[in-house]
Amino acid sequence: MVQSPRSLDDGSAARLRALLVALVVAALGLGAGFVLAFGLSLLLVGAGLDPSPFVLLVVSLVSIQGVAFGGVALVYLRLRDRPITSVGLRLPSLRDLLFVVGGYAAALVAAISGAIVISITGAPAGENQVAEFASSDPSVLLWLVPASFLLIGPGEELLFRGIVQGRLRETFDRVPGVVLASALFAAIHYVALTGGAGGRLVTITILFFPALVFGAVYELSDNLVVPALVHGAYNATLFALAYAAIRLSESGAVPEGETTQAIAALL
Questions:
Q1: Can you give the pTM of this predicted structure?
Q2: Out of 6, 36, 85, 111, which residue is the most buried by the measure of CB atoms under 10 Å away?
């Protein structure tokens, strides 16, 4: 059946609208999180306190992944008159757990492969807030292991898979929907990175491939708990590896420069 020019135009407009909505939702979540985290940090300083790296990290996690991402997602669902269960929230089945195991392995392989390529080529990588906190207080990485399952995985997956990818999938096919959502997820990390534009783009490229895994397991399972668990386990492993690398560098077992590069590429 040949589509009329009008139907083609309607389809293009719907896809453009879905993409714009996804961009706005992601920007609102990130922007609200930064504003809230900055405001709370100012309140702590104004109260005469000197927040430690750990306190600042907690403020950032709760503000961004917890309140902002979760809040924007819930407001979006409310505006569209949809329950939270519409994003696919249920106890994982045995099949879902297999997706969790396979997704975790695939995401980790993707990230480590990217780090190896960076190490071999010597390409610069951008660093994020976590790497900066870890350089002054490595113990924050240990606290980030449980936070990966409690805040980071659930918060980021709710917004970027449950809402952003879900909205894109209303008008795009499976593969384009997952690819676009993954690219958007990786791209929003640009503002949270430090360093030159080239280094930031290198890190974003690495992040894109694990993000594809998160999106794929969500698409295959239709259960948001699955990518949340994969994402949580993935991040927790990277934080643990980064902590071990820092301690090894302190003992002289690993050159400090290589450790810094590894952290920048993985976190």
A1: 0.90
A2: 111
